[in-house]
Design brief:
Elements: H1 2-8, H2 23-27, H3 29-32, H4 45-74, H5 79-102, H6 107-111, H7 126-135, H8 152-160, H9 165-175, H10 182-185, H11 197-208, H12 214-245, H13 257-263, H14 270-278
Length: 279
């Protein structure tokens, strides 16, 4: 069998990696694939760990793209941000699909190792919190979770106090000559954004004149896509938790499903939704 395989290999395929970087070297697979440590002997804990680790990797990429998009928008260079935001939306689809994989974990199976999680909880995911901040869902109280992490905490405070991608988009409206109230442009970035009539009017102008404001129109629709995907991710999170633990209290102390249902009420980019009624 070995001789047969050798004959089928193309002559140019490199086999000796004594001195060259291999695929595994580049991706540091020795570190990546040795980072799954079960705290129980239960078979399905491996699923639980990998789902959450891969979700964090996808979130890292979302933040990479979102931060770059925000930088472009703040410079009023909108077109490069469209590709980045489209990529974010596709990544969100991957994250949404991951809940269907986790839902193969039954309540009985999860109960076999749930106690091993201690007080750890997805609520503590700092990358998910940074994504929410970047999309405009700000809540200073959530930062208390990270106070014990000396290097992370200042980064979280900084992110809380920076303009979100929607704030950047509102500045882009003014850069294109549209009028927006000063209170929407000069506000406390650490607070949740609240609906502003002048912002709605500006977006209405964009949607009524898409040819004149095509870049802003395209940006708005990209943001709506991301907002919708984030809501779908939240919804699938809630239904997966309900399927596996019912209405038990979360490991991190939250009310579990009840808390996740309240989170669904926190919408993104309010004027981009309300203007649809007025068009």
């Amino acid at each position: 069998m070995k001789n047969s395989e050798d004959k089928n290999l193309e002559k140019g395929i490199q086999l000796d990696f004594q001195k060259d970087m291999s695929y595994g070297d580049y991706l540091r697979l020795d570190q990546l694939l040795s980072s799954q440590h079960r705290l129980s002997d239960h078979h399905d804990e491996m699923l639980f760990i990998i789902i959450h680790q891969t979700s964090e990797l996808w979130m890292k990429l979302i933040l990479h793209e979102l931060n770059a998009a925000i930088a472009c928008i703040r410079q009023n260079d909108l077109e490069p941000s469209f590709k980045m935001l489209s990529r974010v939306s596709r990544i969100q689809q991957q994250l949404i699909q991951s809940w269907s994989v986790l839902s193969t974990l039954t309540p009985s199976e999860y109960m076999q190792f749930r106690d091993k999680l201690g007080r750890s909880s997805g609520f503590q995911s700092y990358q998910n919190r940074l994504i929410e901040f970047a999309l405009g869902n700000k809540n200073a109280r959530t930062l208390a979770v990270y106070q014990h992490q000396e290097e992370l905490y200042p980064l979280m405070v900084k992110a809380l106090n920076e303009p979100s991608i929607y704030d950047a988009a509102i500045f882009a409206l003014t850069a294109h000559g549209l009028q927006v109230d000063e209170k929407a442009l000069n506000r406390d970035w650490s607070q949740n954004y609240e609906h502003n009539d002048s912002v709605e009017e500006a977006w209405l102008t964009v949607y009524r004149n898409p040819e004149q404001y095509w870049d802003l129109y395209e940006l708005a629709e990209k943001l709506v896509d991301i907002g919708n995907q984030q809501q779908l991710w939240r919804f699938n999170h809630m239904t997966t938790v309900e399927r596996i633990i019912g209405h038990k209290t979360g490991t991190g102390g939250s009310s579990g499903v009840t808390y996740l249902k309240r989170v669904l009420d926190q919408q993104f980019f309010p004027e981009l939704l309300s203007l649809r009624t007025k068009l």
